[in-house]
Amino acid sequence: MENGMQLIISGILVGVSYAVLAAGLALIFGVMKIINFAHASFAVLAMYFPTFWFLQWWGIDPFISAGIALPLFFILGYLTQRLLIERVIGESESETSTLIMTMGFSLLIDNFILIGWSGAPRIINQPYTLETWRVGKVLVNHAQTYSLLISLVLIGGLFLFLNKTMIGKAIKAAADDPEGCAYMGINLRFVYGVAFALGIAITATGGCLMATYRPFNPFYGESIIVILFASVVLGGMTSIAGALIGGLIIGIIQQLSSLVVSISLQNVAVFMIFVLFLYLRPQGILGKRERLI
Amino acid sequence: MKRGTPQKRHTFWKDYSPILIACVVGGMISCIIAENRYLQRIILLVFLWAAATSSFNIISGYGGQVVFGYMMFVGCGAYTTVLLFKFAGITPWLGIFFGAAAAGIVAIFIGLPTLRLRSHYFAVATIAFPLILSPILDHLGLEEVTIPFKGYGFSSMQFTDIRVYVAIAIVLLAITLAIIRKIEKSRFGFELKAIKQNENAAEGMGVDVYRTKMFAFVLSAALGGIIGAVYAFSSLFVLTTHAVFGLFIIVRILSINIVGGLGTLWGPVIAASILVPLGEFLNAEFGARAPGVQDIVYGTALIVTIIFMPAGIWGRISEFLEHRHRKLGGSPKLSFAGSSDPGEKGNIEKKESPVVENTPAVGTEDGHDRPVLQVEGIAKSFGGVMALRDVSIEIPEGKVLGIIGPNGAGKTTLFNVINGYLKPDKGKVLFEGKDIAYLKPHDLCRLGIARTFQVAQIFNKMTVLENIMIGAFARHSSSLDAYAIARKTAEKMRMTSRLNDRAVGLSIWETKILELSRALATGPKVLLVDEPMAGLNPEENDKIGEILKAISETGITVIVIEHVVQSLVKIADLMVGLDEGRKVAEGSPEEVISDPHIIEAYLGAKWRKRYAQS
């Protein structure tokens, strides 16, 4: 029983970290209808730079780096959208070609990290990385708790931004009806750029937070991108709230699965659930079926 | 249309000899330049990657369904063959067929849920499967399987000379290419192309989209399984899950396919012979200092091609050839054995209506007013919106039925229910007395219900002739027959001058005629036409009307949705008025257009009163 409680708590902690990353993916998908396969690679890049290297070079705390990553990756995301993805979007079969292109891009990010900073697994060594609180019989890691709190602030900020600012509202409008937006004088390219940038910035910050308690390597993105995708599918593809719930569920399933199967098969359990969902409810938990014509 | 054997043999030679020649020449060049084992290995890899990419190309390039989890099949083939060899002593020559079967069966299970998804969901969904299987294999202690050495020799597929593997790989490649060439010329290939461009339209034209995709998927998978097995035996002593289930496999295959050109026969071969040696040489040169350099080559090539040359190398070459061909005034690109050149030139003659003189599709013996189609008590709602409520209509054979009603009245929904795109919540649709409400559009098309769409749904990248052929394939499985039907239909519809132009460049009028031609080529008994006059001028409206009337005179029942009431009235035998999902008027055109309900629905209550007073 204690074991189960412990697993649910750590499932929630892991799940929220997935939720943050998945929210960025869902935002990009919801607005631009593209699947960003390089999404997790951006998070991994943020784990190295600024998180790992700022700590190594100047002793900057990873939680401060997370704050630095937000604007840094916002700019990087904006440039990626305007310089690469914009060239493909809107053409015929652009859904597939953007997917393939971002896959190529993730390959580049991963391998440049490999060449630049070696393939050795890295770990952040800060006091809070290993320290824990004991609540009853449940152990709660410090770094994960701080990450959870910051993640909640981040998600709250994202919703505020989308609902309260002009540009946020423009993003939501563009997700609904891009053509209508264009007629209303909204610059779609700029809006798409900001949406993509926002998605990447959120994800990169989430990556920094994740790095405070998890070891990582250049190809870590490969192992989480499909988890993120599963979260988004569970949440019904286009909804950010859905992706958050999806991420949370995935985290809990992943942790609880160790009650049933070996720990090396954790992700297998996650993907099985994902496949099951595809069979039974492809529109996700919150999603609606689309009209055909 | 004659189908003489000599001509057939001639095209057979024309179709397949380039593959044979390319593979023989490729093999000979390889033997000459491959002086050491290192070069031989690289050549082996070129052929293997070319073959793997070509197999992938069937479902992903031709069918447009990009399988990100393709390594699943490579891995299944490799593992099945190696495990059978190791534990059961089954020779790999037999084992590869078990490997292919395993990959094919796995593909059916993967395809069942995922092939229903839209293309990019499908792409990412398939990637979950290798991620499920490979940790399970690791967990079972199979992450490294040593291929037992059973002495050099034919039966164990173990050779000292790498060139033997090269020969095997060349044969594999040649077989794969020959299969693709065969597909390109067949109904299956045309249908795949149609699905890639417009799934809805393909379904409506009698293509069983799901089954066609599934067949292509299983074929791609089985070939991938064979290649995986040969790859394992030729290049590995130790089979690891990473080597055959790794993400790098799909990345390279995608890269090679995109750079060469998706859905082209020669693209993968050309791109593999550039990218594979380049990657291997760079890896040998800089790999120690920069371990990811090979993947950077593939990634960069992928991105650069997508941005600057989306059709790929071969796509660009064939565009150039086509362009030059046209400049020289050559014959059309599509040529079939025994087909005559569509020589007659001349614009689509707008002044004259196309002559439609089909022999009646159905025997219209005696009961002229026998209903061919009956809609009984159909209801359909979307969420809280009732699009149709209890609509019943009887449609007599060989007549023109006009359906009018304001926007949102449920007209298109009614069409979608009749031809299977939507399932009704309640009610029946009887076609020749049989309930068809739960059949799919492609089944209905083959039964004899064809349609055109409100927003034209044509296969943009196919030629006009190919578009019409897709319709003709609904009843004819041979390409030659479909070609003949398509040409005949095009002649009747006066569409011959643009037969070999891509559909994307057509005018609105031509697009409408194309959609009608394509629907007629399916040999329908009932034709559903959704707003054929939208976007046309009054003169053209009347001409469309004449065409529809001519079609109905050949025995085909025509149901038209139209807002241009004055043109519709001229041709309709019967009319039905819909408003807010209800049938509000029915009868002769005169009756319906003077019906108070209809006047109110179109013009408001004020006009209804005025009309009543007058």
What's the oligomerization state?
heterodimer
Give the second-level CATH assignment, the architecture of chain A: Orthogonal Bundle
Q: Write down the secondary-structure element order of chain A.
A: HHHHHEEHHHHHHH
CATH class wording of the largest domain in chain B: Alpha Beta
Q: CATH superfamily of the largest domain in chain B, called what?
A: P-loop containing nucleotide triphosphate hydrolases
Task: Supply the number of structural domains of chain B.
Answer: 2
The major sheet of chain A is characterized as: 2 strands, antiparallel
Termini separation of chain B comes to 63 Å
Which structural class should the secondary elements of chain B be placed in?
Answer: alpha/beta
Number of helices of chain B: 25
- Order of strands, main sheet of chain A, comes to 1-2
Number of domains of chain A: 1
What is the mean pLDDT of chain B? 85
Q: What is the β-strand count of chain A?
A: 2
How many strand units of chain B? 12
Shape of chain A: globular
- Work out the radius of gyration of chain A: 19 Å
- The percent range for helix content of chain B is 55-70%
Describe the structure.
The complex is a heterodimer of chains A (293) and B (614). In chain A, helix 1 (2-32) packs across helix 10 (220-234) and helix 7 packs across helix 9. Chain A has twelve helices and two strands; from the N terminus they run αααααββααααααα. The model of chain A is unreliable at 289-293 (pLDDT under 50). Chain A is mostly helical and 293 residues long. In chain A, a hairpin with a 2-residue loop joins strand 1 and strand 2 (138-141). Chain B has 614 residues and is an alpha/beta fold. Chain B has two domains: 16-246, no CATH class; 371-613, 3-Layer(aba) Sandwich (Rossmann fold), CATH 3.40.50. Chain B has helices at 5-33, 37-62, 71-88, 92-114, 119-126, 128-139, 162-185, 187-197, 199-204, 209-235, 241-245, 247-260, 267-286, 293-308, 312-327, 411-418, 441-447, 464-472, 479-492, 508-521, 538-553, 565-571, 589-593, 596-603, 605-613; strands at residues 144-146, 238-240, 371-382, 385-396, 400-404, 426-431, 434-435, 449-451, 526-530, 557-561, 574-579, 582-587. The longest helix of chain B has 29 residues, at 5-33. At the A-B interface, helix 4, helix 10 and helix 12 of A face helix 4, helix 5, helix 6, helix 12 and helix 14 of B.
